[in-house]
Amino acid sequence: MSDPIEPSTSSSSTKDPALLIHPRREPFEHGLLPIPKLIFTDPTQTLIPLKQKLIEQSSSHRVNSAAISEVLQISIDHARLVLDTLASVLHSESDPLLKSKPDVVDEVGADVNDLVLFLYIQSYKKLLPRTHKDSAAVADVWPSTSAFDGYLSALSPLQLVRSNSRRFVPSQADEEAHQLSYLQKHLANIVSLLAEPVEGEGEESLVLTMEKFEHLGFLFYFGDKGSEGYHLGQYAPFFANSDPDMPAVPVPAAQVHDWVLQNIVSSLENISERISPKENGPPSSSDQDVPMADACTSTNKGSMSVRGPSFIEGISKSSLIKQASDLKGSSVKVLNCHDSVIYILAPLRYATVYGCSDATIVLGAVGKAVRIEHCERVHVITAAKRICIANCRECMFFLGVNQRPLIVGDNHKLQVAPYNTFYGQLEEHMNEVGIDATINRWNEPLALGVVDPHDSLSHPAGVSDAQAESGSHLDPEQFTNFLIPNWYGGESEGSTKDNPFPLPDIYVASQQRNQNNLGEVKQLLREAPLEENRKRELSTALHVYFKDWLYASGNIRQLYCLQGE
């Protein structure tokens, strides 16, 4: 372990990003499940005895779906969902759960300490969106309301996000402050869940071992490199002089609590100092969520901070491509994009699509989790380990996923279909992030409740719950392959020449029929007994209809982009 660095309380050092503690966003953004039995009104009093019951299930302190189901009194499907969701947000890449094949996940199981922290944060409430400063200008960008508005629900997903005060996704700084404040409030309880009493001295003498202390890394990290930053142990003053050949002496839980709390306070002060100037003037370029201007090709515009995700925001009536070399970090957020085609052809850990409409979004290979939320009339094409769809309407998902698609919230008219595209580096990217092309569970969606207890904006208190509307299977006759343009010769070249996910037989047969029909039409046109001038008239008419379709569908913009205009 490297020498510890103790954060100073002076103003100058608190502004050094390398000395600041941060919340791990992943558990809060991708790890919350709207399962009522996982949300406890008094997490500590409930989870301490539950933790003991879980430990009794296994001598290795790792538990499988059956044990989780029995102790938490939830279905085996929900228990496996807990296990898979926890795996997608774990902090330690060396945990055996992350390296397990799907068929042996239950043999490996989850570490009880990580599981109880995961269960504790199910009490977290998301931050309400902020109001956009220029609501009038923003209103001009948004499309007309959905055809469903007025009789399916009071507000559509996008109307809900944009209603009245034109609310938008909170800034990264606001979200981080909200998550840190939650952890600050609950820190004593969180530490007590990991602590254990000194033998013979009773409950008053709680201590943390080095191994238990490292589990706090599920919720915190240091540095400015996102969740791939430094582990707590590299900064903590505890265990620093421990002999590697000897077990480290446990540390009083109160001492750990006070040290983490001091760091949280320093980080909150730093965030407050960064936010305050923005309230009275233009935001600084270092912290701003920078929207991307209309673009046809990959550019350097956008919010590409070293720490946190890359942003693609506010694209309207355009085509955009991002490849691995255009992204900093391994997470992407696509926010408030309209009437556009967006290609993100890169290996990613996490991806979020929020508040988009009338768009096609291609996400390359996502090894941890994808979340699609508050979208309307969007086509999403992705190869991913797992996907969660929340509060969407009239959307279509072409999926190559290793786990069951999770559908939560107020959804309407969703369709799911098998994966339908490829690009040169797809298989290389899938191998890099751990996606198995032989497993595709696109047709096994798991629907949870309509009400999300973590989201008070979409579902105010007192609203009755029901099972979310699931996604229907796309009619094989409507299934078509999606062609990704070869925008650039160099980086886009690769070994993938076809869709790596095998298609179900019924979709293969439909594609073959369509190909045969197209061949017959071409032959009929070639052999039509027409004079040359009539053939030219027919050809001209076909071109005119095709051009009309290009304009009506908006695909003409992609041709302009391909031509570099």
TrEMBL record:
PROSITE patterns: C_CAP_COFACTOR_C
Keyword Membrane: no
Gene Ontology CC: spindle pole
Entry-linked InterPro entries: C-CAP_CF_C-like, CAP/MinC_C, CAP_C_sf, CARP_motif, TBCC1, Tubulin-bd_cofactor_C_dom
UniProt cross-references to SMART domains, sorted A to Z: CARP
Region (Disordered): 272-294
Localization per record: Cytoplasm, Cytoskeleton, Microtubule organizing center, Centrosome; Cytoplasm, Cytoskeleton, Spindle pole
Alphabetical keyword list: Cytoplasm, Cytoskeleton
Coiled coil: none
Recorded family membership: Belongs to the TBCC family.
Protein name, per record: TBCC domain-containing protein 1
Stretches assigned to the C-CAP/cofactor C-like domain: 282-435
Pfam families, per database record: TBCC
